[in-house]
Amino acid sequence: MSEVATEHNRIVDAAARLFYERGIHAVGMDAIRTEAGVSLKRLYGEFASKDELIAEVLRRRTEIWDAGIAAAAASAATPRERLLAIYDFLDGWFRTDDFRGCGFINAFGELGAGSPAVAEIARAQKERFQRYVGRLVRELGAPEQLGDQLALLAEGAQTTAAISGRPDAASHARAAAVTLIDVALAA
Length: 187
What we know:
The protein is 79% helix and 0% strand. It has 187 residues and is an all-alpha fold. It comes from Pseudolysinimonas kribbensis.
């Protein structure tokens, strides 16, 4: 990896960490520069504005989320197990020391009304997740609306865990998902 690519990644990683820990508005470009260990000139050479950097952080977060969900589902043998693996993934994430809620929900809450780019990226990520869950529901042979219901449970668990500080929101959502799946398949 070239030095330029390494610096680019250090900047994005530093911004992601700081935005997630402190909030986007609370973090200035100088704090990001310091955390990344690059000059301000280099930082602005990579990202012409904070908005451009925020968008890159959210794109990276999408890749991380997608990879995490895929890894959780990889060991599951059936569509039902893959659906429930979503909540197992959430449970593990909620129990990490640095869990601060969904970065997309946080960014949208902070900037969505004033930043069409942030709103678009956050909406696209949520739609992508719904499509993923919908695909698993189709593989299961269950009614289509189950996908939206299960995605909503996952989103609600993220918000509940972040606000309440209770990681058991994932296990409660998983139990509700089991019930919804059983009812949908029995219908």
